[in-house]
Design brief:
Layout: H1 2-11, H2 16-51, H3 66-91, H4 97-119, H5 129-161, H6 174-197
Length: about 200
């Protein structure tokens, strides 16, 4: 009985190319949904800015601190660059868990800095169109980043629990996860350009 059950289980093992295709399709769907979601904020930014009803797009005093914007963006970009390196290292049989931990830490620093920035803003979401877009974009970006960081944390924990597998067997879906984290870093850069520089 056990022998036949084991034989049936072995028959239904998915081939690696199927898992790769599922990862690619999953990344494409997640990336498309994320781009569409944050495009709403880009559209709102330009639409409300062009209307500027009663000159309330960006009243005096509604300006986020530049230092926080730079620090948050740098933290996310460095985290994404390191995690992309982790994906490359895992596929080529190099050790990667320590770098994954640093990437995770930098991502968490970016989220924590965002919370500190909220505590030091001199305006609220009701202070014009810019303030509404700023709060909506940055708050929801932080939530999406925390969800993505959960995946980085599970990959990091896997590498710490099984260090012998670092050089032999890369974690499943590490490459699509790295691409998605790079996409979020690109959205963070776009947010920095529109919300802090323009």
């Amino acid at each position: 009985m056990q022998e036949s059950l084991r034989h049936q289980t072995e028959e239904y093992v998915e081939p690696p190319e199927l898992a790769d295709r599922v990862d690619r399709v999953g990344f494409g769907l997640a990336a498309g949904a994320t781009i569409t979601f944050f495009f709403c904020f880009v559209f709102a930014y330009f639409y409300l800015h062009s209307l500027d009803n009663n000159e309330l797009w960006r009243p005096a005093g509604v300006s986020p601190p530049d230092g926080y914007g730079v620090a948050i963006t740098v933290a996310f970009v460095l985290s994404a660059a390191l995690f992309f390196w982790v994906a490359l290292a895992a596929r080529t049989g190099r050790r990667w868990s320590v770098i994954a931990g640093i990437s995770l830490l930098l991502g968490l620093v970016g989220c924590i800095l965002q919370v500190f920035e909220y505590a030091n803003l001199g305006f609220g979401p009701e202070d014009g169109g810019f303030a509404s877009v700023f709060y909506g974009w940055t708050l929801l970006f932080t939530v999406v980043a925390l969800i993505a960081l959960y995946r980085i944390e599970t990959i990091f924990a896997s590498g710490m629990r099984h260090p012998e597998s670092e050089t032999t067997e890369p974690p499943p879906d590490i490459t699509p996860g790295a691409y998605y984290w790079v996409l979020l870093a690109a959205i963070a850069v776009l947010a920095w350009i529109l919300l802090y520089l323009v």
